[in-house]
Backbone:
């Protein structure tokens, strides 16, 4: 397994829409394993392939307390269940140190392929539902800052650009 570099906002590659996975083969399974290692190493609860500059519809997540239940979503399709929405504080490995309350569907129905290439379905609510929607957005080139006002988004972008410059100068 290998730890992958995570793209950071405002990198334009984060805006690229991911392509469907045609076949779940050893290459895709290796990507999944590398993404899980990267997510855990970065102390995240979710990671989309787009965030590691691989534009395929692959997501990994683990919202368990002890980080022992990784979930793999290949070619995920989500459908909100009902009209109820709730705000929840979200962060992102691609936008470190910034958080915002983002309203999302309270419950969702998920259809995806697992690491083994077999289809599965589940209904999710709470943190898992939020995480699924957040990571699915990444596959569409959408970031949580897109739900904020232009003023807040611009402020975060400027702070991230300053952070990147400081890291380059160091």
Residues:
């Amino acid at each position: 397994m290998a730890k992958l570099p995570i793209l950071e906002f405002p990198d334009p590659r984060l805006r690229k829409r991911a392509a469907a996975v045609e076949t779940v083969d050893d290459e895709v399974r290796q990507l999944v394993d590398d993404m899980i290692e990267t997510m855990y190493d970065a102390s995240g609860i979710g990671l989309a392939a787009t965030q590691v500059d691989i534009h395929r519809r692959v997501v990994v997540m683990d919202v368990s307390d002890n980080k022992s239940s990784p979930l793999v979503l290949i070619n995920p399709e989500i459908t909100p269940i009902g009209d109820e929405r709730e705000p929840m504080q979200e962060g992102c490995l691609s936008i470190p140190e910034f958080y915002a309350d983002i309203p999302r569907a309270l419950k969702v129905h998920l259809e995806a392929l697992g690491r083994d290439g077999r289809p599965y379905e589940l209904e999710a609510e709470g943190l898992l539902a939020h995480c699924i929607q957040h990571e699915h957005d990444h596959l569409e080139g959408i970031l949580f800052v897109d739900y904020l006002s232009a003023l807040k988004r611009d402020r975060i972008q400027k702070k991230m650009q300053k952070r990147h410059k400081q890291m380059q100068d160091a």
Q: What stands out?
A: The chain is about 30% helix and 25% strand.
